[in-house]
Amino acid sequence: MDALDTTERVVQYCVRHGLIDGVELDIERLIERNQYLTLKKKPLPDGIDAYIKETKPNHFEIGVNAKHSRTRQRFSMAHEFAHYQLHRENLNGLAEGERILHRSDERNHLEYQANDFAASMLMPEELFRSEVIRMNGDVTELAKRFGVSPLALRYRAKSLGMKGHGV
């Protein structure tokens, strides 16, 4: 599990362990399979999507706002999982609790990295591009297929340089 430091490795791991159903990656089960991570869904204060914090040495808790939609929770889980995989050594420097995937010039490099990792993991490029073609760029249907919000889907399309109405 420690070697899941690239989205390609995460996706390959998920395929090998049956954590991808069609095109939707089961981020919740991926987190639960890691003995060093605990996932908690609970109501969080307004303006907070999720957090990750170290609860004891090398053990971390990912908290996700239970008041949010399933798709928002999935992206939040993926974002915090990305922080765990990429920024584990620097987690104490992150704010406890954050808003995820919101347009802001104040976002730092670690947040952009976590958003990109989350989007790439939930919507792998090759699969994403083929599904966009197969579904004629229908944002609503594509978002359902990947289990993400239309905002997350558009974020991924933009990051891949895709242009057009919707996607």
Topology at a glance:
Layout: H1 7-16, E1 20-21, E2 24-25, H2 27-32, E3 37-42, E4 50-56, E5 59-65, H3 70-87, H4 109-122, H5 125-134, H6 139-146, H7 150-159
Parallel strand pairs: 3-5
Antiparallel strand pairs: 1-2, 4-5
Helix pairs in contact: 1-4, 3-4, 6-7
Structural class, by secondary structure, is: alpha+beta
How many helices? 7
Helical percent range?
Answer: 40-55%
Task: Give the SSE order as H and E letters.
Answer: HEEHEEEHHHHH
Largest sheet: 3 strands, mixed
How many β-strand stretches? 5
CATH architecture title: Orthogonal Bundle
CATH class: Mainly Alpha
* Mean pLDDT rating: 88
Could you name the ranges where pLDDT drops below 50 across 5 or more consecutive residues? 102-106
- The end-to-end span amounts to 33 Å
Pfam families: Peptidase_M78 (PF06114)
InterPro entries: IrrE_HExxH, Rad_response_metalloprotease
Protein name: ImmA/IrrE family metallo-endopeptidase
Organism: Hoeflea algicola
Give short descriptive properties of this protein.
alpha+beta, 7 helices, 167 residues, two-stranded antiparallel sheet, three-stranded mixed sheet
Short note summarizing the structure:
By secondary structure, this protein is of the alpha+beta class.
